[in-house]
Amino acid sequence: MSRERRFPEGFLWGCATAVHQVEGNNHNCDWSEFEQSGGILTGDSADPSCDHYRRFREDFRMLQRLHNNAHRFSIEWSRVEPAEGEFDRAQIEHYREVLTELKACGMLAMVTLHHFSSPLWFTHRGGWMASGAPEAWLAFVRKVAGELGDLVGMWCTLNEPNIYAYQGWITGEFPPGRRGDVVGLYRVLANMRDGHERAYRELKRITPGVPVGLAQNKWLLFPANRWNPLDQVLAGFSQFGLDRWPVGRSGPRRVVEATSDFVGLNHYRGSLVSALGRHCNSWWLAQTDFGWAVQPEWLRTCLEELAPLGKPVYVTESGMATKDDSKRVQFLEDVLGQVWQAIEHGVDVRGYLHWTSMDNFEWAHGYSMRFGLIEVDLETQKRTVKPSGELFRRIAKANALPAS
Ligand code: FCB
How many Å apart are CA 260 and CA 191, to the nearest integer? Predict the structure, then answer.
């Protein structure tokens, strides 16, 4: 007989966003410069935007109605520190209002301190590739922790170092738009690892009671030809996505063992990899508008791999790009069923933060990708909850999935 699938008491239900994707009018950062110089594949720029910078109150009230009890978002470094060492009091106050509003709406604030966008002054001195990058970012980290830490529920130091470095230094789809720069990739990852470890210690000193982790992207890679040892080696790189850091003084090691209170998992996709150059995108699996292959079970695979680490796990991003919301409805039902099963099998999953609340600026793909539970008309700024948003509301309210 089927039974209701309940989630643990206190489970976090929410959405994740990143400032540059939703706020609008954010021009003192590398992404804006990249957009202006024609770097975006669709030719879009983040403006017009969802105007969340001015509409955050209305947006949070909507999420409250959808029974979200947590919200992951980032604080824009280029607004808070527009020039090196100069902090903007009005912007700090803005984010204090944002955090205060989240609290008033009953949502725990999970704050990301770097989600892909960096101030121009930082990128013009070499960005995350340059020596001294971690120190430069840590000044911002300390400032935010000291000024706003009393309202923060959880810290995510960095978002997806592996994707950030790969897209910016190998494929060129993100600023600084470099291609095939393996040395750059290595230096970025080493600096980000150093930055994360030092930020962890600083945040524990300034806000000792607030859990600190980071959001790592796990992109599952499978060998296209199981008989080919090279394909097996390539597939092994998916190990580096999540709990290992492939660079640094002590070599690959599990960064979460020492310097994270929790593991943040971002998972979207899997791919077949082949040393013969046939990079097949597994056509036999469900596709999204992005062309990414998606299988709800893969989220459970990722979660179960994390169990031996013995740390609480949060799904810090999961979602699919589709203009057909009925696919998202199915995806949510399936993927949350997998999260529930992982919990049943002993994985300490404490929350699910869906990517994302509103359709927004999807980096190199501009406005062509729709990940939201809420549709936004960029002309009128009208927000409309989609059927997937309604489903999310029912599940979050019940803290359970209906009997299967
Ligand atoms: C992740 C990013 C997030 C969003 C989703 C679709 O890699 O962290 O900002 O763009 O992909």
Answer: 17
Q: Counting beta carbons within 10 angstroms of the beta carbon of residue 184, is it exposed (0 to 12), middle (13 to 18) or buried (19 or more)?
A: buried
355 ligand 1 Cβ < 6 A: yes
Which tokens in the block code for residue 351? Answer: 């929350």
What global pTM score does this model have?
0.95
Q: Confidence band (pLDDT; 50, 70, 90) for 222?
A: confident
Cis peptide before 308 (omega within 30 of 0): no
pLDDT class of 23 with cuts at 50, 70, 90: very high
Task: Give tens-digit pLDDT for 43-73.
Answer: 999 999 999 999 999 999 999 999 999 999 9
Q: How far apart are CA 27 and CA 120, in angstroms?
A: 9
359 CB under 6 A from ligand 1? no
Q: Distance (Å, rounded) from C-alpha 357 to C-alpha 22?
A: 10
Taking the C-alpha atoms of residue 107 and residue 57, their distance in angstroms, rounded to an integer, is 12
Q: Which two tokens stand for residue 314?
A: 């949060």
Long-range Cβ pairs for the range 86-90 (8 Å, 24+): 87/143
**pLDDT tens, position by position, 127-155:** 999 999 999 999 999 999 999 999 999 99
**Domains delineated in the chain:** 5-212+308-396 (3.20.20.80)
**Residue pair 264/306 in contact by the 8 Å Cβ criterion:** no
Closest protein CA for atom 10 of ligand 1: 362
